[in-house]
Amino acid sequence: MSRKRTAILISGRGSNMEALIEAARDPQYPAEIVLVVSNRPEAPGLETAQKAGIPVIAIDHTEFETREDFEKAMQAELEKAKIELVCCAGFMRLMTEWFVETWRNKMLNIHPSLLPAYKGFESHTRVLRDGVRITGCTVHYVRVAMDSGPIISQAAVPILTNDTTETLSARVLEAEHIIYPQALALVAKGLVRVAGEEAKFSGTFKAGPPLISPSM
Ligand code: GRF
User: Which atom of ligand 1 is found nearest the CA of 172?
Assistant: First the structure.
C-alpha cells in the first residue's frame, strides 16, 4: 500500500494536527504526514510537529503583497514535498479560487459545528446563544466559500445545561480528534468520491467508534 503524502496547514495550537500525526504513526494508516506548514511563525503547533519529527515550514503571510503570492510560496513547498493531500487544521487564512481549485477534492478542513449550520468564527458562542441542544464538528472538502464543501464526516455533541464556550469547545475538540483521522483515512484509501458536490463512499470500510463525543 502506498501511503498518501499529506501536508497539514496550521495557524496556531495544532491539536487536530497532533491527532493526525498520532494516527499516521501506524504504518497501516493510509496517509503519511510529511510536512506541516504554518502561516504564523509563532504558532505553537510548529514545535509540537517538530518534536514529533515532522518537517515544518513557517511561511509568514504578512510578508507577501497578495494572498496569491503567499499561496504560490506555499504551493512551491507542497510540490517540493510531493504532497498528494492537504489537511487544514485551524488554518486561519481565506484561500483564493486558484489555490482551492489546485487542491480540489484533495484538501480537507475541520470546522467546529455541524455544517452547514454555524459557519465562520465563534461557532460555540453562537450555538450557546441560540440555545440549540446538539452541535458537533464536520470534516469537509474545501471550497472557495468559507466552511463549505462536500461533507465527509461529522460527530454530534450534545450541549449540557451548564456548558460554557470553554467546556463545549473542549468536548467538541475531543470529537474533532476522532473524526479527522477517520475522514483522512477514508479519503487516503480512495473510498470517497465527489458527485454533484456530495461525498459518496464506496468499498467496505470500518466505521470506527460511533460519531458521538467520547465524553458522553
Ligand atoms: C478547531 O476547533 C478546528 O475545528 C477549527 O480551529 C480549531 C483549531 O484547533 N478549524 P487546533 O489548532 O487544531 O487545536
Answer: 2
